[in-house]
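Query protein
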Amino acid sequence: MTSSARAARLGALGEPTSLRRFGTHVWAVADAEVRKLRHDPLELVTRAVQPMLWLGVFGNVMAQVRGFPTGNLAYLDFLAPGVLAQSALFVSIFYGIAAIWERDLGILQKYLVSPASRSALVLGKALSAGVRGLSQAVMVYLLAFAMGIDLDVRLTNVLLVLVLILIGSGLFATVSLIIACVVKTRERFMGIGQVLTMPLFFASNAIYPIAVMPGWLRLLARGNPLTYQVDALRSLMIVGGSSTMNVGTDVAVLLGVVACVVAVAARMYPRMVT
């Protein structure tokens, strides 16, 4: 075997090893975050309060209003995917504050001197946020089932819903991490986080269709990643639900945004310690 052939073979063998190493680093970071959730299961219970209020109170009140063109869906059926996306958003968008705590405790510095790449660290954080989002999905599904919402419980659709929650939660957690890298203090982060959540939620199709929005808000909704997540969830989660933009387009947009924000966060992450 020539030296060039041997080098090519070593390169081919080394590539999956690097990929496995990257995956191991992502999983290690995610596992460390998920362990925190295991030690504080009460958080899952408290997180269930918000979707209960949105579906049980807001949903039942708005269901009496006949003005929304929700097609063949009852309003509660229309609302349930939006509440699920909102619950995952609210869990994820404040994820950056944990990174600030880690910096103050010296944990972040240990992450940065580890052999894990910056992208692996960011993706590990995003994956752990996705796991928290999945816990919200379980809560919303149970609540929706108890309220008689017409859920599509086919295994394929349920699995696709869980994948969408993973992607959406990871996306907004990474956005949160970028914000934390910029503001660097808990007080500033809390203010910006609270300012972001309501516009993201209300400038989407979570609680009303895009068709009823004024033109300027419709443009904002089209540029809002939450809109695409809700659109896909509505098609997959509810019997008779449909996507106005095509599920494939929704997923492609979400993955494209995830790729962009992960790249930005990986570059900015080390700046938190400066």
User: Anything to note?
Assistant: The chain has one domain: 26-273. The radius of gyration is 20 Å.
